[in-house]
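User: Study the shape:
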Amino acid sequence: MTQKIFVFNFICSYVPLFLTAFIYVPFGNLIVPHLDVFGLTVQPFAEDEKPTAAPVFQINPDRLRKQVIYFTVTAQIVNLALETLVPYVKRRVFRKAKEFQNNRKGFENAGKVNDSKSEHAFLKRVRNEAELDEYDVTTDLREMCMQVRF
């Protein structure tokens, strides 16, 4: 399953770059004029109209560089948000929702335990860690493999 997920992520991440690098840049001026699907489907219904010439297509050589930069920067920002911000916000929201439910039901003191002072810091840390999501090794492996790309 890890291999399948890795291959799927690789395909989703890099197929647009491969298409741009190996099809659009070298053969774009030959292929793109034939991709006017809308014009081909409308032409039989427009009997009175003269067929118009296809617009001249010019390749944008800077597109590949911009696309690579976009994928790199976007991937880094999305990964940062998913790894740091989302879990933090999720824990805070769930904690507040639980407090709200307890207050609404009349259990104001629910979940509050009187710990001894020597164990309070340790038990607080354990309770906070128990609220975290389950750690998935394959997710870290996929992230490391995808980061090696550049």
In short: Residues 2-147 form one domain. The radius of gyration is 27 Å. The longest helix spans residues 63-105. DSSP finds five helices and no strands in the chain.
